[in-house]
Amino acid sequence: MKPGSRYASLILLILLGLVLGLFIGPAGLSPDEVLRALRPEGGNEVARRIVLELRLPRAVAALFVGASLAVSGAVFQALLRNPLAEPYLLGVSSGAALAAVGAIALGLSRFGGLLLPVAALAGAVSAITIVFAVARVSDQLDTRVLILAGVVVSAFFGACITLILTLSPAETLRSAFFWTLGSLSGISWRMNAVLVAWSIPATVAAWGLGRHLDALALGEETAAGIGTDVERIKRMAFLLASLLAAVTVSVAGVIGFVGLVVPHAVRMLWGSAHRQLIPTSFLAGGGALMLMDVAARSAGGPVEIPIGVVTAFFGVPFFLVLLRRRGGDAA
Amino acid sequence: MSIRRHLRATAAFAAVCCASLGEASGAVAQVTVTDDIGRSVSYAEAPARIVSLVPAVTEIVYSLEEGSRLAGRSVWDDYPPEVSSVPSVGDALRADAERVLAVNPDLVILYAGADNSRSVQQFHRLGVPTLAIRIDDLDDLRRNITRLGALLGRDSAAAALWASIDGELTEVRRLHEGRLRPRVYYDVAWPPAITVGRGSYLDTLISIAGGENIFHDLAAPSPQVALESIAARSPDLVLVPSGPGGSAAEPGQRPGWQAVGAVRDGAVREVDGALLHRLGPRIGRAARALAAVLQPRSAP
Questions:
Q1: Pairing with A193, which of A121, A303, B202, B209 sits 20 to 30 Å away (CA)?
Q2: Which residues of B touch A28 (CB under 8 A)?
Q3: Distance CA A116, CA B215 (A)
Q4: Alpha-carbon distance A229 to A190, whole Å?
Q5: Has this prediction a pTM greater than 0.90?
């Protein structure tokens, strides 16, 4: 497939996601009602609010959360030279979850809708800072230490979460637990603004690092040999990918598989040069999550299926088929 | 009536017969009570060191004026106030056997359910009799009041207790007869949006108090629903229970909730979560409190 038609098909995927996201939902609005709601001052009040205040911001959030996760995963896989790398590997999700669960347990969540995302972002950034500080020895970032530190910090935060949940009243547990599962429900335009304002520049920056990431994938010595400032690139890649993951976690919780599967799938389909891997991952991740969120919202009637379940249900079989077709040259 | 329910009813009836025989003759007669997982306990004399791990049962025991028989309770027990002088033995689910054993109980009453099946077996091995009970709807409440009355030799007090609850519920129902019934969204938790379906006694209670639960069509007791469905079903009122079981933030401050007409119009009412979230002897009072919110003009 030519690069041009690649991008065209991915943009079509996103448009399909947008159309389905606006027209399909548990409220069962007819296509006609949705169309009227989309016209200025048209349609009945309830339909207009459902389409413009619930479905539209949600579709936009799905686009940018999916896109950010896929870009974050692509960068992590290059930086850590590990096919298992994904956005949550280095403790971002557990840091965010610990801060959010802590805030819920302290009853702080009563103070308003934005407190939880802010706490989660602070938790994620703290986790990133700890892992970064541990892995940075005499001005060098050791990627093996990075993985180990990330996994261990995650485990520690996980234990802290369990401790808080054990000691707090049963009623707060459910809310805290569901928060960590990930959901695109109730995303406001304000949260979307934060998401867009961060994910687009970060993706452009990651795209700018593209050739250096290609070099890094060959090994640090090789990269240094062809004139890459390896330490600076690693630091930037780490911060970009971690903060992308942190922002998505703070608005939507933990949504698995997108950050792992999408970059691999794109690599298998169209090769691993980062100059095209980063933008195609962005579009594919966004489009895929939009479509999967439509499934999450509409499959269970008035009951909403957790988005993480849907991403696993679609992501895993799709990935297994790809793996089977491409065999060993995947990683 | 299913066979199981039939058996249950027969067992309860048998228990009542035994108990009333004892009462009538004044002689020492064996009282046998069967629980909701088919186990029976027999006593020649009412158990005197009961550990109640079901807050509603604790309230029933106090209502029957037999609170002095309680040797232990769970951390969730907070009513009546005197219960604070009964030693707490910890969690109500997956009970700490060591702490329960330490108060030397002659009966442990606990919830029937997957969480407790291990505890039941453990107490059985330790030689401590157990009553595993379900208390999910008004019928269960009536059965448990009868059962405890039989067990404690207080059948007439138990019958009077149920009669007063039943009378209170009937009276609440009569208050708003023929009036418009507001359509209600009951806000159990957010996020995600969790409400009550017809599997919950709260659905029944809303109906008794003169409202209509917008998610009555869902069978689950506490289903998770999509925000969009709430907006589409457009409730007249959003009820937010207070207390630790209450929701995260005021609905008006939650992102996306302005799409729900009632939230936008300020038709959000706080209700007493501590009172409503326990299906026990105070359920009549809970219905009255709910009716005061749902049918403010019908209040006596």
A1: A303
A2: 232
A3: 28
A4: 37
A5: no
